[in-house]
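During the second half of the funding period, the structural biology subgroup turned its attention to how the target accommodates small molecules. The most pressing case was 2-oxoglutaric acid, which had performed well in the primary screen but for which no bound structure existed. We therefore specified the complex as follows and requested a full 3D prediction, including the ligand pose.
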Amino acid sequence: MHTDMSCVTIVCQDEIGGLQVRSREGKWMDINPCADTIVVNVGDLMHAWSNGRLRSSEHRVVLKRNASRFSVAFFWCFEDEKVISAPDEVVGEGGARIYTPFVCREYLKFRESSERGKFDKVGFTVKDFAGDLKQ
Ligand SMILES: O=C(O)CCC(=O)C(=O)O
Ligand SMILES: [Fe+2]
């Protein structure tokens, strides 16, 4: 189970399926394979840039039977040196930025070093890196 550290991810899975996404309420939902259909995931960079309006959801792959599975994922990120800071128009008047602005490269480095050797990647998200200033 993890969140993508990208801005947006495009996933194409074959008919074996297995992709699941966790709802706000914590319920795992199957993303059933559908011919000629792609899945678009919001990643951590988009989550921070949108000030949490677009949620980088936890997802995982679970195989219900022993079968080979094929999927292709395209991770679209911002350039390394770009600073992620939710724009004023998104934050709104009287609103607050929930994450400290950060450089993409630094977040990717944080994720890569934290993920090494770990199966459960939750706990190493943009929240842990840039802090939830609301809480
Ligand atoms: O294989 C899949 O369907 C999803 C893969 C995925 O979530 C990832 O590579 O980040
Ligand atoms: Fe993913």
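Two results from this model are relevant to the next phase. The chain has a mean pLDDT of 89. The CA atoms of residues 1 and 119 lie 8 Å apart.
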